[in-house]
Design goal:
This protein is about 65% helix and about 0% strand. It has one domain. The longest helix is centred in the middle third of the chain and has 18 residues. It is built from 3 helices and no strands. It has about 60 residues and is an all-alpha fold. It is flat and about 50 Å long.
């Protein structure tokens, strides 16, 4: 990101445009069948399936 409050005040739509550009880049990589991007996304999807939210280290709880 790298933008300050002053930058945001001068151009409040900048953050949303940057997010849209990032999404467009990710979409473009998927459309081009970039093997590295697909492998990464699949591994993250598998990881999220195996590690549900809140299932972290519970051994050190009180």
């Amino acid at each position: 990101m790298g933008w300050s409050l002053q930058d945001w005040a001068a151009d409040p739509e900048k953050a949303s445009r940057e997010l849209e550009e990032e999404d467009a880049q990710k979409e473009k990589l998927l459309e081009e069948d970039d093997k590295d991007a697909l492998t990464y996304l699949r591994s993250m999807d598998d990881w999220k399936d195996e590690n549900k939210r809140g299932s972290g280290n519970r051994k050190n709880m009180g």
